[in-house]
Amino acid sequence: MPSPRPLRADARRNREALLEAAREAFLADEDAHVEEIARRAGVAVGTLYRHFDTREALVAEVYRQEVAELCAAPARLLAQHSPDEALRAFLLLLVEHSAVSKGMGEALESIMATDSPVFDDARTEMARALDHLLATGAAAGLIRDGVSGRVVLRGLGGICSMRANGWQEDAIRIATILYDGLRHDAASTAGSRP
Question: What is the pTM of this model?
């Protein structure tokens, strides 16, 4: 199957405008209609449907974009911080990502009913990003060895999926507790070495 032709510059601008408008609309109003998204992007509804067959396809692409940006962060964080501090910063970004996802809650629920792999793919990518940070920290002797990214994600997942008031503050506290636990074992092990 031949690869799709690259988008013309105006079509690319329209697609980017639609994705940005959709993200803003979903965060501001979970039930944003395609007409509202097209209006915010400054394009006709037909243009929206040329890029995205359904509203669910648009939602999935906005979510994929959010996850891609999140999962690109470890390289930047490791360039700016020690491995343990990069892990701490990424855990806080995961909480922030959950807040964005909550803002898109109803929109995301619309694709949960489909057979879209978007959530499985997202969890896999986030776990892979965490695996990289954990392995880098363990190799430097700053983070406990033997913990997978998937386990850390599960540790944060429960609190981040809650809809109760104050969940984000609690999630930040729990992320800090996880971080302290991951560092504690590495620090005590390092301290006992000759």
Answer: 0.79
